[in-house]
Amino acid sequence: MKDASSRFRELRERLTHFHSLNTAAGLLEWDMEVNMPRAASEARALQFSAVTKAAHEVIVAEETGHLVEELAPAAAAAPADDAMAAAWRWTEREYRRRRNQPVSFVEELAAHTARAQEVWVEARSRKDYSLFRPELEKMVELKRRQAGFVGDFADPYDAWLEEFEPGMTTSSIEKLFAGLKPGLVDLVSRVSERAGSVRLPELKGSFPVDRQRVFGEEVARAMGFDFERGRLDVSAHPFSATIARDDVRLTTRYREDLPLSSLFGIMHEAGHGLYEQNVSDELTHTPLCHGSTMAVHESQSRLWENLVGRGRGFWKRFAPRFHEMFPAAAGLDAEALYRAANKVERSHIRVEADELTYSLHVMLRFDLERALVSGKVKAGDLPDAWAAKSKEYLGIVPPDAAAGVLQDVHWSAGLLGYFPTYAVGNMISVQLFEAAPKTEDYSVLLGWLRENVHRHGRKFHAEELVRRATGKPISPEPYLRYLKTKFGELYGL
Amino acid sequence: MKDASSRFRELRERLTHFHSLNTAAGLLEWDMEVNMPRAASEARALQFSAVTKAAHEVIVAEETGHLVEELAPAAAAAPADDAMAAAWRWTEREYRRRRNQPVSFVEELAAHTARAQEVWVEARSRKDYSLFRPELEKMVELKRRQAGFVGDFADPYDAWLEEFEPGMTTSSIEKLFAGLKPGLVDLVSRVSERAGSVRLPELKGSFPVDRQRVFGEEVARAMGFDFERGRLDVSAHPFSATIARDDVRLTTRYREDLPLSSLFGIMHEAGHGLYEQNVSDELTHTPLCHGSTMAVHESQSRLWENLVGRGRGFWKRFAPRFHEMFPAAAGLDAEALYRAANKVERSHIRVEADELTYSLHVMLRFDLERALVSGKVKAGDLPDAWAAKSKEYLGIVPPDAAAGVLQDVHWSAGLLGYFPTYAVGNMISVQLFEAAPKTEDYSVLLGWLRENVHRHGRKFHAEELVRRATGKPISPEPYLRYLKTKFGELYGL
Q1: Is the overall model pTM greater than 0.80, yes or no?
Q2: Cα B19 to the chain's mean position, in Å?
Q3: Other residues' Cβ atoms within 10 Å of the Cβ of residue B109
Q4: Which end of chain A, C or N, has fewer beta carbons within 10 A?
Q5: So what's the pLDDT on residue B182?
């Protein structure tokens, strides 16, 4: 029998092969959103499916199972921050999750997902939930069955969570949300009362798109995003894509009347991008060479978007350049720009929500996903349950299904268990920001994040990473305290 | 045993799987030239190798061999233009060529190619052939060995040709070149003598790059290139890439002082692109959904670049718009622009050669490749042999190796047997152009090409395709006659 270190090398080669195929599939997706003529969708679907199938086969191969089995003792004996031990942990999970789903089930789920997404688009455009209801019912049932395949979980929701937030459980999320919800609902309610009398300034006028692009790039560069190892392009929906550690691509969209929308979009995606660009060399060309869990990733995008970009210091620094680029903003000084960037408004659409109300949208979806998986709410009753939760958390009720239960792509895409990571990411963003040096020199901030978060790639899950970086467990209190201070001051509470 | 039609369906599915992976690899290459940050080269090489390996495995799988064997009788009995029979012929060749090369040999050749390309770049920049000589020696030896693996060929050069120009043999190419060379050498010599006294007009001044782009797109659109199913981008070296039948991508490069360089580059690549965009539906999503052989493909790019773009009719049509876009060209009327586009100059670099001398560069390389494979010329004697041939064909001797034996990428890339297809493509371009309706309405010309060439994809090899389209075999005479007429008139012979 070969020694562990040579078997670890074999594992690493296998992971590099998987990663190369997987990131090639990532390029197919990026290109589809940025460059591809629409006429080529059918060919692109075939290409994507062929490359992801090849990647999948590398993981589910019997040899992967042998490596996982043989290397278990060595991985368990290694220090937690050992790159090979981390690779083993990643492989064990992927192998277990993928290998135990029967091929026929995987195909059924893929076919249903394709169908559900088509129906969802149609249902949303018609604002008719009844069209989508049977698809959602079937999706929940398939995802429940999937949970049974992928591991031995007390609650199917734990199996869903493991896909996006390994290391966390339903009950750990419930605990975090229980610590956030009452205080946040109360704060939103009080700010909303004040919002009638406290009018924050607004940016009005024309903000030429090519100047928005230049300004956005300048800000991303100031954050430390390396354009020698990345790009910024345009797509219908902003996203970031890691084609390689040294090829990280951001996208945004521009509207001439909404300069802050593209700016914060760029800062958000650049936050994700910085994470991916700064993983350490020892992890490159492997699946560990990505940001850790979804919550940690979101902590990075939110940190730059909200704690930096929607902060006073940012506007003090960038107001002169903003005025130079956009004469329409001449009437707003740095303080006014800061205030304009922080307007609170209770609204229906999560992706357009302000910093204060955002996490309530997420908790609403978490509650409903939990109710769906436990059977407490049937798919047919979802619009009513949504309305009730929205009233309870945000004080408003959506006028139609497109502004409510049909607004997100996640459920049609089978991404159940994804939502809570957004709110946990918000909590982590504040904890990290408060542990980092207080400075408006972003290279110092980035240096701290690189050392404490980025370089580790996927070595640690959220809890372990936050403990190492801050000395404390993940907690909602710093986040709530931060929101109370910031919005209390803005709205004179 | 299953019936042939159900086995043909299995073959088609297998080919679609291969084609999807192969065109995904094509996107990796396109993106590398157009978008990728240079820092990501190492990751991109891993991605490209992983995806092409997956594609290769689809072809060399035992099941492919079974399909080829079982379907041989049905394919032989089908009409020549049957899509499935053509798919069988393609698969038989690919399976035979790939399957019979030992994995260790394929790896050795790939490793040597990577090394040879690096050394070639260095040698060319230093103008020092002695650096590259051992790499070329080894490349010729490896390619000779490869010829032994891939089939039962009388001459190793036939095996090399089959990769790029299946259906043609060394002797058929020799016959074509024998019919072209004496007349062409004589014509070039007589035109060169006259070129001292007959001065054709020249375009001088500034031609803004963004206007070159607009004009080039207008011309490509006038040719019939469908921008709803394709793109035009910028890269260091112009090329065209077929990501899908409905996603055909052209690239060019711009120099402010050379508007004809980007224009003819775009017309050349759009000629390739039109071919790929107009393959019939029955072949989409398979490897048959590409232009036929390299020679036929080159006939399409050359037809649009030279017979259309360097023709009098083109300049009559486009001179007004050209003047509108480029004030610097105001002094040259349509006839002068036509003449400026057709200046002849004996020069050393093939890719910069004019229409008249181009094929002589190609024949020189064919002669030297033949001499290398037969052993008549050793790698060490190549610069002398090059100088002698260059003197004989073009009347000039390169001043250094960078302008001679080191100028092309082909030999370092292992593309021996590729060159002759360029000259055969020139011959075919004239034969097809003369068989097509005489018109300046490009939609009529494109319609004829679509019907007689494009729609067939890879169903037929060059000889069969030309016979079907023109009723005649491939021949050098129309090409030579066309050159004599055109350049005789331009240079007053």
Answers
A1: yes
A2: 20
A3: 19
A4: N
A5: 97
